[in-house]
Each structure stands twice: as structure tokens, then as C-alpha cells.
Amino acid sequence: MTKTYKQELFQIGDVAKLFHISVGSLRHYEKIGLVKPELIDENTGYRYYSTRQFECLNTIRYLRVLDMPLPQIADFLKNRNIEKIQEMLCQQKETVIEKQKELKNIEKKIQNRLEQLQDALSSEKESIRVKKISPRRIAWLRHDFSIDSYENPDFETSILQLAQGQKDSIVFLGKVGVGISKEQLLARQYSRYNMVFLILDSEDQYAGPVEDLGEEDCVTICFCGSHKDAPAYYEKLAGYIREHKLQIAGFSKEITMIDFGLTNDPNQFVTEIQIPVCMSHG
Question: CATH classification of 107-279 is 3.20.80.10, yes or no?
């Protein structure tokens, strides 16, 4: 190699600076066959590039800005033509549109969770209220378990069953609840739960059977604590329901709005119990 010829070449570090990419990326491009150096010095192992590689690097940089995967770029560089790039751009446009939808859903989930946290933090504790709960979708699993077994593998298995086949575990954060059947509520039996359920946001795509709950009037109470503290609050709600001549109209929805998933401090736990009711006709 003549000195003049070598002076016309660019070292790998200089090329990296010119194209605002790392030396590691250039070495990776070489390894997968995207761009090979013009020359590799046999004595030093130094890699040199000529302007002939610049056009290829510009194409790679452009397609990477469009978030195209390297294997697709490599395939295009082996067979460059107008039809091929049109096809690639159309496919990538569809991919971007799909990603935008996914990001929008994630944004909604974050906003929903922020609102739930704010509601948990600002809600009046220990106070019984009657609230109108908007229609909602739930996925639920009938399963009997005691309060003592709530944090045991038996309960976790139920959660895993609800999660089975779901591609997005984020839907479960803060929306898993437990319930007591109407029959057990009427019998004032609060030591065992009958179901585990998942409240679905409007954007959630759940692979499995779901149930649409209509608007419900619920007697509710929010308290600092977790499920193990709930029986005393069911007693309070039952007393309120009797005093105001209401009838229990369905199963309870009991959700830990703040739990170990969000804080290590049990003193910050917040749980809400909702019992659907209607006016007594007696």
C-alpha cells in the first residue's frame, strides 16, 4: 500500500466521528456484513475506509433513523432498487403506526394509575360513602381462599391464571382485586374470599372471557391497611347497609390501591371495599 493511497483513506475513529456513530457500531456493521472497510492493515489491524463506503453509511444512517432493523437494511444493501425501498418504507410506516398505538395505550395506563394513586392518597379514610361506579369490564376467576392464604402461593397461582396468555403484564399493576359473593355477604361471612378479578381499562386487550358490569351504586369505605384488615370494615359497611335499609346487590370488590407493589411501608397501604346495593323494597 502506497503512502499516497493510505492518505486518501479514513481511519475508523475519523469515520465514526463523521457519521456520529460509535467505533463499536462500525465494527458490528463489519461483522454482520453491512459495511466492510476498504482496507485492513495486515501489520496493525487498523481499519481504513474510503469515500466508497460513505454512501453506504449514509444509507444505513438514514434507515436507522427510521428505526429499520439491521437485518432488513442488510437485505436492502444487497439488492438496492426503488421497488424494494418503497416496500420497506411502507412496512416500516405500518410498524411505526402500531408502535404509536402501543405508546398511546401505555400513556393511558400511566394516566389511569396516576389518577388511582391520587385518589388513594386524597380519599377520606374510614368514612362510609355511597358512590356511583361507572360501567367497567372485569376478568375474574372463581377461587375460594382465606385471608391467611392471601399472600400464599395458592393466591399467586390464581393471579398467574388470570395472566396466562396475556402479552402485557402492566395491565395488572394496581387493578387486581378480590371479592366476596353476595350470599356470603348476606350471611356476614367475611373470612373467606370467593374470587380474584382484574379490572380492565378501556384500552386493555384481554385474551380470555370478560364480563361487562353495568353502572353500580356501591357502599364504599377506604382505609389504611390491606386485605387482612378488611373483615372489620365489612362489618361497618354491613351496619350502614342495614341502618339505611339498603339491599346487597352483588359481590364485593376489594382492591388494595397501594400495596407492596408500590411501597415497602405497610403504613402506607390503602384498600377500598365496594359493595353494590339497591333500595330495599321491604
Answer: yes
